[in-house]
Amino acid sequence: MRLVLLSGGSGKRLWPLSNDTRSKQFLKVLDGPDGEKESMVQRVWRQLEACGLASSAVIATSESQKDLIKRQLGENVPLVMEPERRDTFAAVALAASYLFSVEKASPEEVIVMLPVDAFVDTSFFENFELLERLIQEGTSDMALIGVKPVYPSTKYGYIVPGSRRKGTNAFAVEAFTEKPGEDRARELIECQALWNCGVFGFTMAYLLSILEEEGLPFEYELLKSQYHTVPKTSFDYRVVEKAEKVTVLQYEGDWKDLGTWNTLTEEMAANQTGKGVISESSVNTHLVNELDIPVAVIDASDMVIVSSPDGIIVASKESSSQIKELIKDFRYPQMYEERLWGWSRVLDYAKYPDGQMMITKRILLERGKNSTLHYHHNRDEVWTVVRGEGEIAVDNHMYRIKAGDVVHLPAGTKHALRATSDLEIVEVQTGMDISNDDIIRIHDTWDDVLRAHNGSAAKFIK
Questions:
Q1: SS3 121
Q2: Do 218 and 171 share a domain, yes or no?
Q3: In a domain, 265, yes or no
C-alpha cells in the first residue's frame, strides 16, 4: 500500500494566519505530545510514523509549499510537486505516475489518498489496512472512509450507504451529495448518511485506466511536461462519483476538519497565544496574536481575535467561516513567509501611479542555511546587513558580508546567500510587477553554488 497525501489550497478561512504559502496545515497552533506547538501536517505525519505508514507515503504539493513542508517534516520527506495548481484529480494523477514510473509500484499496488490536515486519533489510520483488503478482494473499484455526522453540516460532502458487507463495518455506496443545505443535511443524516472524510483507496491499475481514458501518459516526467492539459477538476467528480462499485468503511471514532477558526479553537489548549490580555468577563474567546504589540480583549464572548502581519480578524466564532468570501478581493502581498532557510516579513509596501512598486522586507537566514542561486527579471534589490555574517554569490564572484554591508542586485543578477551565523538583512525591492513568480532558480544547495563558482575552493573577494 502506498499513501498520497494532498497538501494544497490557501486555507483562507483561517486568514490572517494562513495565506498561499502558509496554508492552514502549517499553522503551529496545536499542542504536541512533548508540550511543543505543532501544525496539522506535523501531527498527521507523526501519526503515520506511529502506524508505520510514513515510509510508504508521498506528499503531493506545489512549489510554493515545498520549503514549509521540508522545514516542518525534514529535508528528506518525499514530495511530488505540481508545476501548477490544477485541483485534486491532476495532483493524484501526477503522484500516481511518480509511484508507477519512478518508484516502480506495481499495477496491483493499492493507493490510498488522503488530506494532509485531517484531525483524527491515530486509530483512524489503522483502518487503512482494512481499506486495502476491501480493494484487494476485487469487489470494489474504490473504497472510502466515512464518519457518522454529529450535526447537519453544510461544509462537508455526504455518502449515502447501502447494504452492509458481511462481517465488516463497510457498506456499498448508493449515492454522494456534495455540501448540501442544512435542511437537506438533516434528511441525509436521517438516512444514515456519513460525512466524506476525503480518504479514497484504489489500485494503481484502476487509476492508470482513468489516465488512459483521458489520453494522458503514465510516465512521470512526460505527464509533468503535459500537466497543463490535465483536466482541472476534483478527484471526487472525475473518479469517485463515476466509479461503478464503491464501498465505504464507517469509522467509529472522532473526525474533524479544522478548516475554520470555530473548529480550530476547539482543539487549542490555551485561549491566548502571543502578547495581550483577555478579561475575565470574556467567555469562550480566543486571542491569537503574531504581532509584537499587545492586544486587549474586554467583555467579548464566543469571539475569535487573530492578528498577524497579513491582517486582523475580529469575529464571532459561529460566523468566522465567512472570512473566505469577505476577503476574496484582497490583493496584498503576503506579509509573512516561512522558508526552508528562515523567514521573511514585509515591513512596507507601495504601488505608485506609474506602476512602479516598492517592497521592504526584514529577512532572517538561520545559521548554516542558504537561499537558492536565482535571479529576477522584474526587480532590483538592495540588501542592508543588520546583524550576523554570511557569504554571497553574485554572478561570477563570491563575497563575505557582515553587519553594515550594503549589496546592490540589479534585475538579472544571479545571487545566492548563505548564513555563517544567524544573518538578518533588510531588503528593498523596486520594479514593475513584483511577485513571487518572478524567481528563476538555478541551484538549491550551497555545494552546487560553489561548484558553479569554480569549485568548493571558490575565492572570496574582500
A1: coil
A2: yes
A3: no
231 and 311 co-located in one domain: no
**pLDDT tens figures, 137-152:** 888 899 999 999 988 8
* Structural domain total, the chain: 3
| Close Cβ partners of 15 (under 8 Å, ≥ 6 residues apart) | 310, 311, 313, 323, 324, 327
Q: Summarize pLDDT for 61-103 with one digit per residue, the tens.
A: 988 888 899 999 998 999 999 998 889 999 999 999 999 999 9
Boundary of a domain, candidates 207, 230, 257: 257
Where do the DSSP E strands lie in 258-388?
272-273, 276-278, 286-289, 295-297, 303-308, 311-316, 336-339, 342-351, 356-365, 373-375, 379-387
Look at residue 457 in the predicted model and tell me its pLDDT.
Answer: 43
Are 354 and 390 found together in one domain? yes
Let me know whether 175 and 307 are in one domain: no
> Does 222 reside within a domain?
yes
CB 80 within 8 A of CB 95: yes
Please give the Cα distance from 196 to 90 (Å, whole number): 20
Residue 294 and residue 155 share a domain: no
Strand order in the sheet with 272-273: 272-273, 286-289, 303-308, 311-316
CA distance 54 to 198: 18
The closest alpha carbon to 208, from 101, 103, 125, 307, belongs to 101
Nearest CA among 205, 194, 199 for reference residue 172? 194
Q: Three cell numbers at 356?
A: 512602479
Distance CA 81, CA 64 (A): 9
Q: Are residues 158 and 219 in the same domain?
A: yes
Residue 134 near residue 140, CB atoms below 8 Å: yes
DSSP letter, residue 33: T
Q: Are residues 353 and 399 in the same domain?
A: yes
Phi-psi region of 215 (alpha: psi -120 to 50; beta: other; left: phi over 0): left
Q: How confident is the model at residue 253 (pLDDT cuts 50, 70, 90)?
A: confident
d(CA 376, CA 438): 6
Whether pLDDT at 458 is above 60 = no
- pLDDT above 70 covers a percentage of the chain that reads 97
pLDDT band at 456 (very low <50, low <70, confident <90, very high): very low
CATH of the domain at 366: 2.60.120.10
Range of the domain at 411: 341-461
Distances (CA, A) of 244 to 43, 188, 240, 364: 34, 21, 9, 53
335 in a structural domain? no
Radius of gyration from C-alpha coordinates of the chain: 24
Asked if the structure places residue 334 within a domain, the reply is no
- Angstrom CA distances, 173 to 38, 165, 431, 432, stand at 36, 11, 56, 54
245 plus 194 within the same structural domain: yes
Residues 6+ apart with CB under 8 A from 194: 146, 147, 148, 149, 158, 159, 161, 248, 250
